[in-house]
Write a structure and sequence with these properties.
Oligomer: single chain
Shape: globular
Distance between the termini: 87 Å
Largest sheet: 7 strands, mixed
Amino acid sequence: MAIVAEDFFKERKYPFIFTLLILLICVALFLFSFSNTTSNPVAFYSVIQHQAPPHHASKPKVQELPPKVTNVTAEEDQGLPREENALTIDWKLCEDPQNVDFIPCLDNFVAIKALKSRKHMEHRERHCPETSLHCLLPLPKGYKVPVPWPKSRDKIWYDNIPHPKLVEYKKDQHWVVKSGEYLVFPGGGTQFKDGVDHYIEFMQKTLPAIKWGKHTRVVLDVGCGVASFGGYLLDKNVITMSFAPKDEHEAQIQFALERGIPATLSVIGTQKLTFPDNGFDLIHCARCRVHWDADGGKPLFELNRILRPGGFFAWSATPVYRDDDRDQKVWNAMVDITKAMCWKVVAKAHDSSGIGLVIYQKPTSSSCYEKRKENNPPLCENEDGKNSSWYARLNSCLTPLPVDGMGNLQSWPKSWPQRLISKPPSLPTDSVSKDKFFKDSKRWSELVSDVYVNGLSINWASVRNVMDMNAGYAGFAAALVDLPVWVMNVVPIDVPDTLNIVMDRGLIGMYHDWCESFSTYPRTYDLLHSSFLFKYLVQRCDILDVAVEIDRILRPNGYLVVQDYVEILNKLTPILRSLHWSVKLHQDQFLVGRKGFWRPTSSSELNVH
């Protein structure tokens, strides 16, 4: 029943009106703040999506005591607001000698020791510690500025990665040879008896439809060794994501990155690879030591997930060309599983050295799935349509072929280099998405030319390995395509998923949560780029922890370039200066930090002096 105003006040209900009024004002302020926050066209972080999905949410970190904080001297004050430049951090050196190459989420030996099983390579998967790293990793004794590209493809400084084990272990296969102060990479490999360049040509002759650098642009090399396959494919305009676990093949991925070749640490174990569905044009395995028929074929189902429809799987291993019982048992299992997956053999051959190769092709139509006598393996049901592989278990099913907004099967991207600038097949078909994509590409092209290349005093001749920490549509990477660099395009797990679009464009990337450590060795990147990442990242994790991780990843003399709001730049600046980095601001929007060779004095050095 309605209550008239006079009765309302007589009954002393005006406190209710006052409370309701305050509530309405709060709602109005929230909506105004939300619309302002999400209106930034270059911020791919979404306020709505800043929380990670429950199944892969980061565990809450138990913070250690922070490093000692003291005041800076007047000489260190370089013009920033006093309250933002009044602190420095008393950093300590990580004392354990093994910490030179420490990877927090792969070297968590307490968690690894507690594993109940290692049967499925669980000990090579990520196990991030509860507490963050709050010390700085030392440099190897005698560390030098890396050999510049392209010379680095063939030789690197031994002192930068002083690991001789692989030299001895693979000396007959010419993976790597020590020559004076260098490690030299002759282009050999277990299956590359006549050299990797000969092997690449052999693949092309075996299946001319591969068309390196035109039809086939984005490649995954499983169990890549020192990544010579991917390194030599660069001459063919092919970008290869090379990966291997951190195992007894000492420092193989570290060698690859020091050479300037794209690579990451990963393993096909119990979890999905951190790549999107239908992303790679070709997947390669040359004696990669993966048991493809294990667990009913789950490793092959994972390849099927990340391989583009019509894409190729090139497998060179003894079951392809040897007749002993063990190899034939594996071959027969592969025949059964690949047939059930509707893969077909499109080529099989032997080269002059006796090495065999078989090439499978993933179907481009769902008709084969429908005609199978048994629905085994079944097609996966992805009800929410999300493409999440972060800490997700391997499938026991086949990922359905991708369709566009009209229900039509997605097409193969245009030939390289047209695919870089064309509408990606996985981009939504509506005009708004298309317009947003092309505006983003244009903006990055202008921004990189005007600011990043010519306005930030970056010595691009010293830059080879680049990481975009919040890649979006990979406009930054696309704008750098004419420079002799490669870019790891990282799509954070709590932002709109654009990684398929990145790979449709002929570029490489992976998912990551920046509240955790990245799966790479220390000192492996020359430049890290962040565009409007920190503004929302600080809502979930400590900016100091992220800075320590950036310091771990960057090489001495490497750059951090941050485009963000001024309050974020003011928070980052004193942290970076406490690390003895040089820091410059440009247009109150870009921060350029440059890491030096400084490391804190170790306790052993203090004792000596």
